[in-house]
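User: Before I run my own analysis I want an independent prediction to cross-check against. Here's the chain; please return only the structure tokens and, at the end, one sentence I can use as a sanity check.
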Amino acid sequence: MSSYLRLRQICLVAPHLEPVISDIARIMGLAVCYRDGNVAKYGLENALLPVDTILLEVVAPFKDGTTAGRFIAKTGGRGGYMAIFCCDDPEERGRNANAMGVRTANVIDHAPYHGVQLHPRDCRAAFIEFNHTEGSDDILGPYPPAGPDWQKFIRTDVTQALTGVEMQSPDPAGLAEHWGKLIGVAPSGDAELKLPNATFRFVKGASEIMSALEFRVADVAQVLHTAKAKGLAVAGNEFLLGGVTFRLGA
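Assistant: Structure tokens:
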């Protein structure tokens, strides 16, 4: 199997699933494809919405003492929780991270799915997960975390793609280099990591967080109008939802 890496999923964290999930679905014209009962063992509930072939997930703790709950407390609810990449060999990428001093936080082995999650403190800014599903080398193939028929829930009439992820850091070039080594993508000169299906941009900020998601939408003004109608504060082409800035482009 040839080596590959794609952004598969972005996970946001919220104190409660509602109204975050409903707001994302309504404003962005997306549909929930799955709620995964397996995350209950971590004290979480979740919902996933496909944005074309990238999954957008929101998790929320329902009891005290969860990693997600600690993340919310530490960040004040600001910042995305996980960047999840599909690849040919999660174990190899995990070993590479360990050799850099980045610890493995969790290994998920639910055949045909295998995932390696890295420790967020070592990753900086957010969790990184590498995963592979047997038979899923087709980007529209099986992906168990999103349910048995996630492809049927893809809606592209409003939101067409998740195109970029913004990461903030007091040292954006340093964080870009660190993440570049972890995921095996060399940064370009302007602190960007370009993947086949999305770009990670690293910008100056007071703390290290996943700060924004960038979307291509059919009608920017209409989406902003819907966000305002939902009571969100809109500034320019963006609004805050689920702890991150949703930034829109045509």
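Sanity check: The CA atoms of residues 16 and 152 lie 26 Å apart.
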